[in-house]
Amino acid sequence: MASWVNQDVTDNHILPYVDSSTAAPDVKAALQTLPFERNIFKLLANAESFFPSFMKTLSCAWSDKRTIRSSDWQLIVLRTASLLNAPYEWAVNEPVARIYGFDDEKLALIRAGNMTSPTIFSDRQRLLNDMVEQLVRENRVCEQTMVQAKPVLGDSGIMEVLITQGLYALLARAMESAHVDFDPPIPGLEDQLRQYNAAAIEREKTFKD
Question: What is the pTM of this model?
């Protein structure tokens, strides 16, 4: 089972990992949505009727048609992982966050929930943090925060935050309940991530706040 203090690859999962080589064609295709397979998706694939459609929905998180920024997406995911005590979710997404400019200091502060520094975090990022914390702790974003978010994120962006947080909260709960194991190291992971997200990385450089 994945933990914060030990990232050894174990074999302690409660549910089986679905093997893409023997899975139904639509499940196999869904397992291969990304250039590499992850244990969490192999767990989710046990729900054969849900899994292909779920992966299509999840892939919207990295769509170029998405309203929120890639750095927004990763901040939402990492704060969700931290708040829901999901070390595997953090470990999978930390390399993604790094290609969007999240360094060691910023990542440590995000994990700790300390986003007060005006030199490290923008008002936009603190707003996103407020939304995620309220969703996890109160099961809703309060009216004041929603009103504050409208001119910053827009209607589409607000709904994308709600959906993104909900999807990754579901993943966090599934992986923790099923005792997901850390994935084996993926050779060349950073290069693969940079290639897969090349256009998004360039877009991220245009944002000034």
Answer: 0.94
